[in-house]
Amino acid sequence: MSTPTPSRRDFLLAAGLSAAAQTPSSRFVSQRPAAGQRNFTSAAVEARIAEVQRGMADAELAWMFGNCLPNTLDTTVRTGTLDGKPDTFVITGDIPAMWLRDSTAQVWPYLPLAREDRALRQLLAGVIHRQTRCIRIDPYANAFNFGPTGSQWAKDLTAMKPELHERKWEIDSLCFPVRLAHGYWKATGSGECFDAAWREAAAIIRRTFREQQRLKDRGPYRFQRVTAVASDTLANDGYGPPSRPCGLIHSSFRPSDDACQFPFLIPANIFAMQALEQMAEIYGTELRAPDVARECLDFSGELRAALAAHATVKHPRHGEMYAYEVDGFGNALMMDDANVPSLIALPYIGACAAGDAVYRNTRAFILSEDDMYFFRGRAGAGLGGPHSGMDMIWPLGVILQAITSTDAAEIVRCLALLKATHAGTGFMHESFHKDDPKNYTRKWFAWANTMFGELILKLHAERPEVLREAV
Q: Which element (helix H / strand E) includes 436?
């Protein structure tokens, strides 16, 4: 049951700020590039921004939304054609490379507008075609260059290619492209992207998942880097930490690009189970290939059974909950990370209902000091992760807390925190210090910007009263 929408006073108190401190300036100047300098403009996105802003009582939040939602289109996309198909390269922001994960998340909120904007639809199709091309180049890579230009990581001790920016094996790197292709199909009703290249990439994804179950051997992937950062390389001759094969898929790295402590990353395995089910739906209906659909469902069933056996643990205070990582020997890592897929994000990716008992227990753990990466300070409280270090709260974590919440008061507290910690920039950052929002990482991080926009869109559609009252 949802709770009543808090009043303005509740909102201000939740932020820990006085009414005077929260009174918005009469001038919030757009931080977007000038219209002629934007990489891409969608009439449908512009119309939606204006529509949503009209329903927002808080001028500062409306300004932030106007800056953030179009940031991917404004600044990170490079469109064209390749081999006669739409081609869209999407950089993350201040790193000029395309991550399979980030590129999906950056364009995800635009999918509902694809039917009404042909140019936007072509851009989205171009992302799918580019991701397909990337997977066919190397399914173990997480990030790619626009062309065969090499990168600063070319000397990593792995099978690098000039098209790769980085070659860290992360399960989610192959799940996100499936999610985007499936979402595009659902949003547009078109299977135009499921061409021979996409089907080849889908087969490569299934093969790679099988290889990384490591049921017979350790598989072909190894990675080492000469570095002083322990989380940037893998132990045991590049194969990563020891494990006991159990049917789950090994992930060498997390969505944060940090090395896993235990190789079975639970939220990523749940995401892989979903990706296989989405492929099964595509093959079973659009492509009419029942044998492949059955293969996908059988594999998904294997993961479901392995997760049932290994994914949860009994916490002394929170009860049965999901572990973040396990190793098959009975060891488990109890934490969460703000990057998606995460444990807090399970309802967001459609893996469970927000009211699921195990998820509720897990969420209570994540948003408490029992989680080593939940930080509380003078600026606020929120989920972080090891990638940015101790005491650094991630806006992504705060956004996901709000997106997955069923409590209006909690959502308003998250909005208040995001509003109070953008350090006057009007944009989201990778992370900020729990005591000083001006101490932040990554000024240009398009994934976080887009997800803030996605949160506001969700509230506009499902809880418009929150945006009308949060002033």
A: strand 436-441
Cα distances (Å, whole numbers) of residue 224 to 230, 325, 465: 10, 21, 51
C-alpha to C-alpha distance for 369 and 317, rounded to whole angstroms = 12
Domain presence at residue 32: no
Within a domain: 2: no
Which DSSP string corresponds to 204-225? HHHHHHHHTT-SSS--S---B-
Q: Quick check: is 3 in a domain? A: no
What CATH number is attached to the domain comprising 388?
Answer: 1.50.10.10
Predicted structure pTM score: 0.93
Number of domain units in the chain: 1
What span, in angstroms and rounded, lies between the C-alpha atoms of 437 and 421?
A: 5
- Mind listing the pLDDT tens digit for each residue in 321-371? 999 999 999 999 999 999 999 999 999 999 999 999 999 999 999 999 999
Task: State how far the Cα of 161 lies from the Cα of 317, in Å rounded to an integer.
Answer: 48
pLDDT tens across 37-82, in order? 999 999 999 999 999 999 999 999 999 999 999 999 999 999 999 9
Full residue range of the structural domain in which residue 455 is found: 8-19+37-469
* Sequence-distant (≥ 6) Cβ neighbours of residue 144 within 8 angstroms: 97, 98, 100, 134, 137, 163, 164, 165
1 occurs within a structural domain: no
Per-residue pLDDT of 29-45, as tens digits, reads: 999 999 999 999 999 99
Check the CA dihedral 416-420-421-427 and report its sign.
Answer: positive
